[in-house]
Amino acid sequence: MPNILILDDDPQMLTSLSDVLQSSGYSVACASSGQEAIDKVQNEPDKFDLVLADVRMSGMDGLDCLSQLVGLNPKLKSVVMTGYASDDAPGRAMEVASSDYLRKPFNAEDLLQSVARVLKAGSEAKGYQLLLNKARAAAQKVGVALSGLEAVRDRAFQWYYIGIRSGLLGATAARSIWEWLESTEWERLSAEKDLDLLSNVQELKAGYEKVSYFCKTPAAITSAERNKEEALSRAEFQPFFKHIQNGLISCEQLKLAVYLRSLPPSELADAPELRELKQKIWNELKL
Known about the structure:
- By secondary structure, the protein is α/β, with parallel strands linked by helices.
- It is built from 14 helices and five strands.
- Helix 2 (about 35-45) packs parallel to helix 3, helix 4 packs antiparallel against helix 8 and helix 8 (about 150-165) packs parallel to helix 10 (about 200-215).
- About 35% of the residues are buried.
- The model is unreliable at about 140 (pLDDT under 50).
């Protein structure tokens, strides 16, 4: 049973969130201040799987608290909650590696979907990797060679996801950044098919780092140089953007979006799970 710590200085919100989560089978602890949350994690660093943290609180705010909690347990996942528009909150949520971002008011279904999505991310990633290993004969061999990219790549996708979920990135900015991210992913896929291209690892790393920078600083976005035939049209991007915005695509699924879009139906004939995922992300977006 996953253990969840809720951090909020509003007693009514603490009770409401706790009731919803406990009724769904989660074990819940509450903290009404940042210091109380730190004390709980400090006493039992490995106890909690997830922290739900309100941003705006008296004294230490939720994001400053999360920064300290992650220092105590780097594996701790978090969901940021806020009902106030703040220019710096999304960027700070990215810096503390928050897994999701809920804007108040949200309902019980939004909460439970976010919590479930975040908690299953690890097993989801392993499951998708097994599917990819079956679909790509060279995946294991090249995956080791490209392993140095994974952390910076994961950060780029996570920040992009949080940028959209938080509202920091509107559709226009998100589409421009997606062009950079997709372009870098195409280069990565090419490298995975041709080991001679692995000398470009530093260029790929720079591409993902540029995406992360743009996610935090959308005013600095520039146009990506890429093959226009590969780029998503506005009509294709809009439902994709809405799916991320509404939490209908997880970050782990987002990481597979470019690869799945590159595959012709014939290559998915023997991979029904990947075929269904491609349809979910690209072909059957019901909003």
